[in-house]
Amino acid sequence: MKIESSSPDSHIGSVAGGPQRAAEKPSAGPEAAAAAGAAAQTPAPAGVTVTLSSTATQAMSGAGSGNDVFNASKVEAMKAAIADGSFQVNAEAIADKMLSNAAEMLSSSVGATRA
User: Fold this and answer.
1) In the predicted model, what is the mean pLDDT of residues 78-91?
2) The whole model's pTM is what?
3) DSSP string, the chain
């Protein structure tokens, strides 16, 4: 199955750079060369503007309650273990968590349909 991302309003194409990449590809013919020259002179689109709420800004800056979302030293230790090949995945713990999560989701969806 081929996914077309050539339309300018295609979400996948816009995220993956589809229409922009199409403009970068060389085409045959003098018209294509002139169009490529004109495209090279026009500035690139500015992109998407994102506005963060004050809560998100505080969370990203580390301000607020002082509770860390993650343990940086543990992350660094895991990075080092992965890099040197000594990191071991505990498949049983992952399976237990997945089953627990699935059971929780099923029980909450059953309760929602009865209400």
Assistant:
1) 95
2) 0.33
3) ------STT-HHHHHHTHHHHHHHS--SSHHHHHHHHHHHHSPPP--------HHHHHHHHT-SS---SS-HHHHHHHHHHHHHT-----HHHHHHHHHHHHHHHHHHHHHHHH-
